[in-house]
Amino acid sequence: MSLQNDFESATRRVQTLGSAPDNATLLALYALFKQATAGDVSGKQPSRLKLRERAKYDAWAEKQGMSHDEAKEAYIALVNTLLNA
């Protein structure tokens, strides 16, 4: 299987989790997915008053410089860890 197929499979399998992961894990999944699909974060950092948007932006910004393939591999590994826990 190709990395892209494995990534797409992981995006489907993560939706089968029995319970929602904690917020830190959700942010990690979001950031890795965005880095894998869109690349480095763009746009202006949201206001501190917009807590959710700011947290998502900051999590994605931490992945800046990571290649699409590295982000896909990290996303797949995290999903596998969650599903095997």
Automatic annotation (TrEMBL):
It comes from the Bacteria. Keywords: Lipid-binding. Gene3D superfamilies: 1.20.80.10. Residues 3-85 form the ACB domain. The keyword Transmembrane does not apply. GO terms for molecular function: fatty-acyl-CoA binding. GO terms for biological process: fatty acid metabolic process. PANTHER family: ACYL-COA BINDING PROTEIN 1, ISOFORM A (PTHR23310:SF62), ACYL-COA-BINDING PROTEIN, ACBP (PTHR23310). This is Acyl-CoA-binding protein. It comes from Lujinxingia litoralis.
